[in-house]
Here is the input.
Amino acid sequence: MKKKQFFIFCFLLILIPCGSYAGEYSLEDLYRLALEGSETIKIAEEDLYISEREKDRARSALLPTLSTFGSHTRYSEEKISNTLVLQPDYTNEWGVRLDQSFSLSGRELSAYKITKKGIRKSMYDLNAVKEEYLLIVASAYYDILKLKKALEITGANVERLTRHRNAARTRLEVGEVTRTALLRAEAELAGAQSEFIKSENDLRLSKTILAKTVNISGDYDLREPQTGIDSSIREQEVLNLLVGDCRQSTMDCLKETAFSERPEIKIMTLQKEIAEDSVTYARGSYWPDISLEGVYLRQENEPSFAPGLNERIYGTLKLDFPLFEGGLRIAEVREAKARLRQVEQRLSDLTHSVSVEVENSYLNLRTVSSVIIQLQAEATYAGDNYNAVAKQFQHGLADSIDIIDANTLLVTAERKLSNAKYDYMLAVLKLKRATGRLLKTAISHDLSTVSTEEDKGNSSNK
Here is the structure.
């Protein structure tokens, strides 16, 4: 019976997958994990929530305040003159008060308008943080793929050098080569083995960093992107997606897209509008404030007064206008105007920076796309060259230095081609980030969410 239970237990261990293995992830999977678990994004989401509460607070200033009050006063003694009660034993008072104060300039409306724009600004802040974080994740993703490919290339290099070392040893035994050829082969093999170990450690470290970035626990693997390698076709598809129906030059269309889509541009534009509203708000201090008060008061005395009123309803209108406040209002207006000039200068500087970033990203994409074609030819020629030299070495027509040089050329060409392919994919994402389209094209679900939020913000602003 115990043996049967033991075999069942072992069978279940084989069937149940190990919990420490997290699985295989594509770039889209990493995007989702990053958006769901990033503390940086959660902080930006809390900023958005705080902005919404600030709007609620500003709206409360537009509504009247309703309050109740009550008091109980007990005196030391009753004072009665003849039949007239001068001082009762105690008095109870309670009532309801309705208060409303506002400025004739409408400062409260300006403040409420500022908070509504602050919500839209926080939304764009959140989108900017998400785009920046997604680009970090994508960079780490392609770095790991580069290291995986480099590990494969290094492993193949070790195998080739091992075969060459064995061949050199065999030819040394029959006297066809000198001992120097074997020593050179041994040195090259040792260097390739050390490079293989270093590549393994670099890959392990990069996977650990990515796991911490997107909150992955346990071992995992990355799935290659499901894209073709024809860079010229993919480049045109990317540009068509970004420029749309624009009829200007490609560079001008990309810049126009960036100026209309980049969250940073939208943020700074909203900050300019907020600064303009702040100037209006500061100028409102030159207008008087009006306070309205309506009160219902009920008074009960023991013993009660013979004459007098026990119930009152009255209203009060107050007009407050400070004549001298030490130059406070002038300072506030000048400060608001200075902040407006600051925002205008920052917007101008940001526009130039985004323009340079778009141009740099576009030229980088064009460069990598053009280089890939040449690197593919170089890798093909280097492989054919190595095969030819290896056959010549077998027949004694080439020496050890020739085959080692051919192998070095092949390894270098393979690494450059592999890095260029992944650099191209990352360059595409950087161009999307530069034009403000990375978040909208990363995950379709996030595209609908962002568009809905922006539409809500625009409609509320109208």
Remarks:
- Residues 2 and 8 are 10 Å apart (CA to CA).
- The longest helix spans residues 107-173.
- The beta strands are 21-25, 65-74, 79-81, 84-87, 90-103, 219-222, 289-302, 311-320.
